Amino acid sequence: MENYLLILVGTVFVNNVVLVRILGLCPFMGVSKRLEASIGMALATAFVLTLGSGASFLVDKYLLGPDLIFLRTLSFIVVIAAIVQFTEMYLHKQQPLLYQVLGIYLPLITTNCAVLGIPLIIVQERHNLLEALLIGFGGAVGFSLVLIIFAGLRERLESAEVPAIFRGSAIAMITAGLMSIAFMGFAGLAK
Amino acid sequence: MSTALLIMIGLALFLGLVLGYAAIKFKVTESPLVQKIDAILPQTQCGQCGFPGCKPYATAIAAGEADINQCPPGGEEGIRKLAELLGVDPKPLNAEHGAPKPKSVAVIDENLCIGCTLCIQACPVDAILGTAKHMHTVIAKECTGCELCIPPCPVDCISMQVVQEDLATWKSKYPLYAIRSA
Question: Which helix (DSSP H) or strand (DSSP E) does residue B161 occupy?
Fold first, then answer.
């Protein structure tokens, strides 16, 4: 039990996908201009990341085995893309409201490198299925947390008096760097 | 080598089958009719028809739950187009939902405005500019003339002004024929 809690804390804070592992930076920079949009993106990614981690783990364990390690990246991409597609169809039919909220961000997740990176890390570190799901979920929570915080910061930055040279992406990069340094403070809290 | 190929082909086939099945099972039948009706409606999002916006009203018309004569901003012209699209007889505007008015915009009397922001919250198209305790004003170009900002104003400083026709606002008019019940 304590082990699982450590995994969760470890993936959300200590080894945060975006700020410590530096994965999934494209949505982190691209979808953080408005808080609402970032919440939609965070929700969609959280869902796909958890499901994708579990499915990729199963594919690796029962389909590929130790002989076909070189197929990992390829097969994971196929599986994740299929999950995203399936999720989109399902939501469009069953939860039209949620589908509208997520909008374009749902299909965009396929190109999020964190969604591929976390399953690859999971199989390399040889976890079991429950741990894999937990790491996927923790990674998703970490991603969502950082994305939403960052979007909030950027909204405030819009009205701040930033020197002309630093306006726009430049100050966003610096902010992200400072946030990353702040998250480094969690190092050592859990593995 | 061949195992790898077989596994990838099998995986692709399996996922393809699942997705193909999902595409049939979760097929969304969004009728193109709703979009056509929505295109005719004036997009004032005023809610005078009793629905929360133009799209919901369009959906209701398509489902047969609402009549075509509930849109005052669309006027007779809108009803005629809807009747043509749906293949029904045009009918006069339902008086319950208000009378057709000439195109007008809201104007805030800036001497009276107390800066309460209530009209900003009411505006469905964000055409009112201003902040708390400062005077507000209407962006005339964005205003759809829906009158939703008038009731919340505590000092009654908003009035509707008819847009005068000049070179910038003139539009050629379609020939209009009065609707008579056959």
Answer: strand B158-162
